[in-house]
Write a structure and sequence with these properties.
heterodimer, A: mainly alpha, Helicase, Ruva Protein, domain 3, 2 domains, about 60% helix, rod-shaped, B: five-stranded antiparallel beta sheet, four-stranded antiparallel beta sheet, about 65% helix, globular
């Protein structure tokens, strides 16, 4: 599989013989609600030294540090947004797997909606136009002649 | 033997230049001798690339470490199967496989295209020759698998352990058959643009090629997803990795192409759009090859430090995509528009399908490339990962999936949406019932899961309704109905099967994501881990030796509610000393469609082991659904009406009586 594999090649060369595990039992918070929030946040944060892996999936040391940091902030009483803002303030927006809504990312977030609307409008207008043209288009002289010929030829039979 | 392979490859390149030019000149001048020269050249080119590929496989099988490619990707102790598959496990080998499949398809057109108009066939073969020439040159100049090393090393550096799996034998060939299969649609489109006309023969040829390529790509992606699932050890089935997106985009646009090609064949409408879509689909295949092969995905900087391969593929990309789109802009306006239809009609439904699928393709494309563009223009580094794709792709797919059952029930030209809705009442009722059952019996709060399960049931029952309606349910006695059902053309069965397969895949995803469970613990022998339906008891840990690895295996008993063992799961962790890499060998046990998935981490100092276990309900349906879709494609492909050749009048009339919906 060429797909995941080349990602893996890079990933594994970075990790070498590291234990093949993401979240470790000693990291898990006692409070299940808090732990669930930690997992949800982790899935949105990128492991900075990996290729396209969240810290929740990664077994890199840096990912572990970040997971622990997220849990520390949550235990200290931060909201989900506060935790994410804190991590972004330290590592930059690169850490977010889901880019923020802002001017720079307007095209990214807006494209699907715009394309769908533009495509629908285009298809609809084409359909209308074609229908109208077909309804209005008068017969060419050639077509008129052909029609007359057919009508004339068919008369005796009718 | 190795030099023969290298020589054959050079010769194949020379032939591809002949193939690119001579038939085209013949087609322009109307010289049939020149035009006919294309076919034997295409077949000979395939034979030479096949010889070259065989030489590479032979070098791998014999562990000839004087060949750099073998030395880098093989080891004398490696199991025999992987000595074969390692031939395409490396960059060089996989590109050679790419070219092999490309020339194979070219040869198929040459051999079986007798009933194509001579100029069209000659032009198609020439365009196929252009692609072949470009990629053969790429292999020869930047990715030669036949480079020797002197003095030859005694031992190889082994294949990447992740690739030492049966998946490597199946996934790349299937994926490339799909990827490269779209090259034929591309060549046909470019040929039509050069010729300046699209006729019935064109549509009859393009549809089966699209179907075949699509079916292979579906199988390839499903297989790759399952491979990633069991090999990576964390149980995910789709990661929205750029490399995955590279294969998913041609699949999405190929699915759109498959549907628009139907309109074009049956109603000769959407001609120009179909043409554009087949160009775009192969362009996305090329783009995928570029993204995976150039290193641009890792970082723009990685691309800049070793740009030889990347720049070469980028040039191929610009040449083919830019060239074909320019040709399209120049020639397409001259093509005649096809039949008219009302917005509420089978054609209209297929336009909606195309609208959603192409928008989804574009969203995935923009999401995949956006970080590169932002980094190249502003220098900022941003990430676009799974949460983004889930947030954009899923909402785009939901309305499309909800509309799927309507499509096949609408008539061509002008359909009756109320009538279709009435016929779908049963499917709708079944979907509501399924959703209600989830809310009542499983969890009242699982609203999204209930919607998802309802959608899956709606898709499957909608597909069954389609077959029932077309065989005359309600209006005919059972005997007549059965006869009509058996007599339905393959493409109708294919449609229903593929749509039902889509429903199964949706069910698998919803089941796994909504009702899955996950447990993580450090266990010692004798410890029990309780899971929703089954518990696991760690019986022991034992070291096992393999041909080129060592393995630590944890043996688990699967316990029922009474605590009795009724099965075993072995989960392992392998260490490959040559590459100094370890892999997880997840222990998986299947219960109907659901799976218990266990992977182990390191042993702790006090003799325990970290165990990560998942209960994955319905998970196998994700890939079985893909398989069903592939079967649907195959059934449709073997429809006798799709067999290339002049349609016989009698059969056509026969078909019309078989379509009661019209």
């Amino acid at each position: 599989m060429r797909r995941a594999v080349s990602a893996l090649l890079v990933l594994l060369s970075l990790l070498a013989v590291a234990p093949a595990f993401a979240v470790m039992p000693d990291e898990v918070l006692a409070d299940p609600a808090l732990e669930a929030r930690a997992r949800a946040i982790s899935a949105h944060l990128r492991c900075m030294v990996c290729q396209n892996q969240s810290i929740d999936d990664s077994n890199a040391d840096l990912a572990r540090d970040l997971r622990i940091l997220v849990r520390e902030r949550l235990t200290a009483g931060d909201s989900n947004e506060q935790v994410i803002d804190f991590v972004v303030s330290r590592y930059g927006e690169f850490v977010l797997l889901q880019p923020r809504f802002n001017a720079r990312n307007a095209l990214l977030w807006g494209a699907p909606v715009l394309l769908l609307l533009a495509g629908a409008a285009f298809a609809y207008s084409r359909l209308q136009e074609r229908g109208r043209r077909a309804a209005e288009a008068p017969l060419s002289d050639e077509e008129k002649a052909a029609l007359e010929r057919i009508l004339r030829d068919n008369k005796p039979a009718a | 033997m190795v030099e023969i392979g290298h020589f054959a490859l050079v010769l194949a390149f020379a032939l591809s230049l002949v193939q690119s030019s001579v038939p085209l000149i013949g087609a322009r001048r109307g010289d049939s001798a020149f035009m006919n020269a294309g076919s034997p050249v295409a077949v000979a080119g395939f034979a030479l690339v096949a010889l070259s590929f065989a030489a590479l496989v032979a070098a791998h099988v014999r562990s000839d470490f004087s060949v750099a490619n073998v030395w880098e990707n093989s080891h004398s102790l490696k199991p025999m199967l992987y000595k074969y598959t390692a031939a395409w496990g490396s960059h060089e080998g996989s590109m050679l496989l790419w070219v092999l499949i490309l020339t194979f398809f070219g040869a198929l057109v040459a051999l079986f295209g007798r009933n194509l108009p001579a100029t069209l066939k000659a032009t198609v073969i020439a365009v196929q020759g252009w692609i072949g020439a470009a990629f053969l040159l790429f292999v020869l100049l930047t990715s030669n698998p036949f480079t020797r090393i002197s003095p030859p090393p005694f031992e190889g550096r082994d294949l990447n352990p992740i690739l030492q799996d049966i998946g490597l034998a199946v996934h790349p060939p299937l994926l490339y058959l799909g990827y490269v299969g779209f090259s034929i649609c591309f060549s046909f489109s470019v040929a039509a643009l050069i010729d300046g006309r699209i006729d019935a023969a064109w549509a009859r040829w393009v549809r089966p090629w699209t179907l075949a390529a699509w079916a292979f790509l579906t199988g390839g992606i499903a297989m790759g997803s399952y491979w990633a699932y069991y090999e990576l050890g964390w149980g995910g089935f789709w990661f929205w990795d750029p490399v995955e997106n590279a294969s998913f985009m041609p699949w999405l646009s190929g699915t759109a192409l498959l549907h628009s090609a139907v309109v074009m064949e049956k109603r000769s409408a959407l001609k120009i759009w179909t043409l554009l879509l087949s160009i775009l689909t192969f362009s996305l295949s090329l783009l995928g090859t570029f993204m995976v092969r150039s290193g641009v995905l890792t970082s723009v900087h990685a691309f800049a430090t070793d740009p030889s391969r990347g720049v070469f593929i980028l040039c191929i990309l610009i040449l083919f995509i830019g060239g074909s789109l320019a040709l399209f802009a120049w020639r397409a306006p001259g093509l005649t528009a096809g039949g008219l239809f009302h917005p509420i009609s089978r054609e209209g439904a297929l336009v909606v399908n195309n609208l959603f699928l192409t928008t989804a393709t574009a969203s995935v494309l923009i999401g995949t490339l956006y970080p590169l563009v932002v980094e190249a223009t502003t220098g900022d580094k941003i990430s676009v990962g799974a949460p983004f794709f889930n947030a954009t792709f899923v909402p785009l797919m939901l309305p499309l999936l909800a509309l799927v059952p309507f499509g096949p029930l609408l008539a061509w030209k002008r359909g009756d949406i109320a009538g279709a809705a009435q016929r779908l009442m049963f499917a709708f009722g079944a979907a509501l019932l399924a959703a209600a059952a989830i809310l009542i019996f499983v969890d009242v709060r699982a609203v999204f899961a209930a919607l998802g399960v309802g959608l899956a049931v709606w898709l499957v029952c909608g597909a069954l309704t389609d077959l029932a309606v077309k065989s005359g349910l309600g209006s005919q006695p059972p005997k007549v109905m059965l006869r009509r059902l058996i007599g339905l053309p393959g493409s109708m069965f294919g449609t229903a099967i593929a749509h039902a397969g889509l429903g199964l895949t949706v069910l698998g995803m919803v089941g796994t994501l909504s009702f899955g469970a996950e447990t993580l613990a450090t266990m010692k022998p004798g410890d029990v881990m309780s899971m929703p339906n089954h518990s696991l008891r760690l019986e022991g840990i034992r070291p096992v030796g393999g041909p080129n690895y060592t393995e630590q295996q944890a043996i688990f008993s699967v316990l029922n509610d009474a605590g009795e063992a009724y099965g075993q799961i072995i989960s392992g962790k392998r260490f490959y000393p040559v590459r100094q890499m370890s892999t997880t060998e997840a222990g998986i046990r299947t219960f109907w469609f659901s799976q218990l998935y266990v992977s182990i981490g390191d042993e702790t100092a006090d003799g325990g082991v970290v165990v990560h276990a998942w209960w994955k309900p319905m998970v196998t349906l994700i890939w079985l659904g893909g398989l069903v879709m592939m079967i649907g494609g195959a059934v449709s492909l073997f429809d006798r009406r799709l067999r290339v050749g002049a349609p016989k009048a009698a059969k056509r009339r026969n078909r019309e009586t078989l379509e009661p919906a019209e």
